[in-house]
Amino acid sequence: MRVAKTVSITLPPDLLVKAQTFAQREHRTMSELFREALRRYMADDTEWDALLRRTRAKGNALGIETEADVERLSDEFRHDKG
Description:
Blueprint lengths: L12 H13 L4 H32 L5 H15 L1
């Protein structure tokens, strides 16, 4: 059995008005609005983490260790393309 817990949050007045307006426009309750916002936020974070893992793995394979390495490789790529 699923049990919901109540959570209190504080919002600046202008953000509260925007959230209420958005919820009404979407025919959602404030709870539904914040649950969906949290789901999307957490999903985006997961996607970002997956992207970082893939790009770090590729960077490691290329021997990239510093931002200077990235700049050097970018310059080399531009030079080869030109």
